[in-house]
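Notebook entry, structure prediction.
Reason for the run: the old model in the group folder had no record of what sequence produced it. Starting over properly, with the input documented here first.
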Amino acid sequence: MILETYDNFYVVKNAISDTQIDILTNWFENRQYLTKKNGIVEIRTNDNKWNPDSLYKQKINLPYRKTTIIGMPHNTFDFIKNLLKDVFHTISNDTFEFESPIYFQKYDIGGHHNAHRDLEIGYPNRKYIVGFQLSDSDSYVGGNLYIENSKGEYIKCDRDKGSAIIYKPSLMHYVSTITKGSRYVFNECVS
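New structure, fully documented this time:
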């Protein structure tokens, strides 16, 4: 792992292997969608609330966020907890408490997430968020993560497959609209 430090976020290069990425993306693609009683895929169009404890993929289609998301328990694969610990220890030797579950997302064409902060009610001690880049950077257009720096400017983050981006939840950030391909990412928050 190689640590790069920026104004107010970190990039850990080679944080996750191609084999681990394949395992995770195959797991995601083999999950079923949350459906209504009539079998039609349920799509969140009124609010951003999704059930992180559900083992079904959930579609969110709102003006400010469009993605497919699922919660993935930490014990789904043996390597997850060690992977998270190793990545967070590149920036600090503190002990972190992982929130659960991990948020696994796929942004398809039109997918995006407008500027926001991840300061959730119920997590007043949240310290960091990490996002793992799981797609080849040339397999999609758009879908860039931008994080606001100390000057109020948005900085385009690393797109390299296998990189992890670590930032504070109080920072404004957004994912630009995907115009071609798909972007896979999984996120975890720590206190």
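Summary: The first helix runs from residue 18 to 29.
The old model has been moved to the deprecated folder.
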